Amino acid sequence: MATPVVVVVGSSGTGKTEFTNLVAGSGFEVGCSLEPCTQEVQVAQANLDGRSFELIDTPGFDPEEPGITRKIARYLKSISKESKEVVGVILMHRIALDRFNKDTSESFEAFKKLCGQQAMKNAAIVTTMWNEVDASVGADREAQLQSNFYKEVIREGAQLQRYQDRTAETAKQIVRQLLQNPGVRLQCQGQA
After folding, report:
1. CA distance 41 to 160
2. For the structural domain made of 3-189, what CATH number should be given?
């Protein structure tokens, strides 16, 4: 039986590593300076409700470093040759951002290229950093994300979810839902 894999991607500073650590109990270094800490793909062995899986923490998408997206794609392509299957891809988005800026837009484009349209039913866009905004402002931004910026991938099956309280239980609930998905071949993994 194939090992389920959940991949966590997004811009630097969105909380990918913190999220991974809370779900898997891993001890990956969390952003501690102005420089991103995660430089390489990191694999955490995890268990949730008696089910073993891998949670993949990735370096932040960076428009100035297109090699990061290639590095993530290479890793994901390599696991397609192993007895592993991607059941979920999480795109982290900071709700505290007051603009859908160039970095966010380019991160979204990288996410779409990694996944492809067929894999969107296995994707979740997870909003983070709710503690940095007033609840009503966050809710307004969330509505804009759903009706405008992420509309096309939501229409293709991606879920928009809140990681509002930054607790292990909320993070695990998001992953728990993705673990119910059948495996999917990502666009970056090529044809079967």
Report:
1. 24
2. 3.40.50.300
